[in-house]
Amino acid sequence: MKKVVLIGSGGSGKSTLARQLGERLKIKVYHLDTLFWKPNWVGVPKDEQRTIQNDLVKKEEWIIDGNYGGTMEIRLNTADTIIFLDIPRAICVFRALERIIRYRNKTRPDMGEGCEERFSFEFFKWIWQYPKTKRPKILERLEQLSKDKEVIILKSPKDVQYFLEQVQ
Predict the structure, then answer these.
(1) Which residue stretches of the chain have pLDDT < 70?
(2) CATH 2.102.10.10 fits 3-166, yes or no
C-alpha cells in the first residue's frame, strides 16, 4: 500500500481516513479539495487539475483523497490500492451537516485556504443522489480494476474502524 486513492460521497469520511492512514503508513496525504479550491471557493481549471495530479502520481508513494470524476482516472490508473467508502447516504448527510456546524466561518484543514465552511444545497443534493448517480459507475469501474489492484470497499463506519485496526 504505497499509492492509495480514497473515493466516496461527500461526508463519507475520506479526508479523516486519509489522515489516519497517512499517520499509520507514514505516507504523505494530498487532499484534492486543498489543491483544487482557491480562496472564496474559486475552482481550479480542469487542465490545471490534471497537471497537478499527473505530478502527484509520479511520486513514489502517496495517499490522495477526493472524487473529481473528470480527473479520477489519473489516480485510479496509477494507484496500487483503491478504497471506496460506500457509506449510507443518511450518515454522509449527517456528517456533512455536523461539519458545517463544527467549522462554521472557518476553513477545514482538508479544504483550500480561504474557503470557509458553508451550506450548499447543491452539495447536499449531490450527496443524496450519489448512490444512484455516481455509485453504480464507480462499482463497475472498481470491478474492472480489481484484477490488477487492491480494491477495498468499506460500507460502514465499523468497517472503516476495523480496516484501520488491520493496517500496520
Answers:
(1) none
(2) no
